[in-house]
Amino acid sequence: MKVVSAGVTVSMRILPNNTFRAAALSLAVCASLALSAEVPTEGSKAPGFTLQSQEGKTVNLNDFKGQWVVLYFYPKDMTQGCTIEAHNFQRDQDQYNAKHAAIVGVSADSVDSHVQFCTKENLTFKLLADPGKEMIGSYGSLAANGAVAARNTFLIDPQGVIRKVYTAVKPNPHSEEVLAALAELQKK
Question: Which residues sit opposite 126 in a β-bridge?
Answer without folding.
Answer: 104
